[in-house]
Design goal:
The chain is an alpha/beta fold. The chain has helices at about 5-10, 40-55, 80-85, 85-90, 110-125, 140, 155-170, 190-200, 220-230, 245-255, 275-280, 290-310, 315-320, 325-330, 335-340, 345-355, 395-400; strands at about 20, 25, 30, 70-80, 105, 130-135, 175-180, 205-210, 235-240, 260-265.
Length: about 400
């Protein structure tokens, strides 16, 4: 699945804006957001293949990137689990052949442990870029003071960022930060955290325009992204939230002035979105609009890559099940067949089921567009007792957070 020949040629002859993350030049200013259970080696490779093929055919090359169509970040891995080399954490940091830059996102609440994890990655040449997670809103993370809860403790945030940057600096590996606006509308931290990260030497900051309390509900606040861009001036500022199409990405950049975008749920079941983004940032309006035959081929390729990744065909089929509804959104597929696809257990069975689809269906248009993945409703953020009473980490919270990483699995 590629851009049409005319669209690919247009990309090749246009000076698309790039994105610099330390020494890495990313041809298209787009980052694939880390998503647990989604952005493994298989999915990252699929996204790169579908975007890169179009650019390669057009003769496009990009300095510092294996394709011109973005930076692809791994699933979040817990720093303590990585230091302890748990099998799951080592699987999460695995990269495919030719994947460059190799990008790993770390979660941690202790500066010493985060620094040790970063040193491991750079000393053993396992990453070319490290992203720090300060945006995760899930209760098992925030109730331990991590993710989107952590920037409230401004000193701890500074110490973690400083420790990571210093650990990565000798190897020339850039560190970036991804965060949310704050815990809730009464406890916003993004401007202060952005300035702190800039002062401590990060290569870029990314802001999801929601608070932790919003989770994935409501609308992302793009105004906040613009405010961060005004406050942080020496490094790239990336915007995240409610980018469901390439045109949304262009609109975010236009409205906020951000230097690039981070795309998460918008590419679920649409791994070809990065080809759209490459064309859009090259100033072209042509977009990939696959028919069901092409979507089925992408689903099949995705499953094949998962089987290679896991070394287990059944595990791969179980993984692809959660993607079925996203891939088939908007297409006319009976409930019985959808249900069978959601229970598939082998590539042979998948092939048989895909053959039953009405593969002549064209792209369904509007029914296939818009929001994908989780949304939900606002919720009270799970936090350590007394967490919001002070910006300083002290007392019981300080003792608790030293053990927090032990109870968060490496992924």
């Amino acid at each position: 699945m590629t851009l049409t020949a005319s669209a690919a040629a247009a990309v090749a002859t246009s000076d698309a804006p790039g994105l610099a993350i330390g020494p890495h030049r990313i041809g298209t200013p787009v980052v694939l957001a880390p998503m647990a259970g989604i952005t493994n080696v298989a999915f990252r490779q699929l996204c790169r293949e579908l975007a890169g093929a179009a650019l390669e055919r057009a003769g496009v090359t990009s300095a510092g990137s294996s394709t011109g169509a973005g930076l692809y970040v791994s699933e979040m891995v817990t720093s303590r689990a990585l230091v302890e080399r748990t099998p799951e954490s080592m699987r999460l940091i695995r990269h495919g052949a030719g994947e460059s830059p190799r990008s790993v996102q770390l979660y941690g609440v202790d500066p010493t442990t985060v620094a040790a994890a970063v040193r491991m990655l750079v000393d053993e040449d396992r990453a070319d870029h490290v992203d720090l997670n300060f945006g995760c809103p899930v209760p098992k993370v925030t109730r331990k003071g991590g993710g989107s809860a952590l920037p409230w403790k401004s000193g701890l945030f500074r110490d973690i960022v400083r420790a990571a940057v210093r650990a990565a600096e000798p190897a020339g590996v850039p560190v970036t930060v991804k965060m949310r606006k704050g815990v809730d509308d009464d406890h916003l931290t993004f401007l202060e955290a952005g300035r702190t990260a800039e002062d401590e030497g990060v290569a870029a900051v990314a802001l999801h325009g929601r608070t932790a309390a919003q989770h994935y509900s409501g609308s992302a606040d793009w105004t906040a992204i613009g405010e961060l861009k005004q406050a942080v001036t020496s490094i790239p500022v990336l915007g995240n939230g409610d980018i469901w199409s390439a045109d949304d990405a262009l609109e975010m950049v236009r409205r906020t002035g951000c230097d690039g975008v981070v795309v998460g749920r918008g590419c679920l079941g649409r791994p070809w979105l990065f080809a759209d983004l490459a064309a859009a940032f090259a100033g072209r309006s042509v977009r990939v609009r696959p028919g069901l035959v092409e979507v089925a081929a992408a689903m099949r390729r995705h499953t094949e890559l998962l089987a290679e990744h896991y070394g287990d065909e059944l595990k791969a089929c179980r993984d692809i099940r959660k993607h079925v509804a996203w891939y088939l959104k908007g297409f006319r597929v009976g409930q019985h067949l959808r249900a069978q696809l959601a229970l598939v257990e082998s590539l042979r069975a998948l092939d048989a089921l895909l053959a039953e689809l009405d593969l002549d269906q064209p792209w369904p248009g509007e029914p296939a567009e818009g929001q994908r993945g989780r949304a939900g409703s606002p919720q009270r953020v799970a936090l350590p007792e007394g967490w919001l009473d002070s910006r300083v980490l002290e007392g019981p919270a300080a003792r608790m957070i030293r053990e927090a990483e032990l109870s968060v699995s490496g992924g």
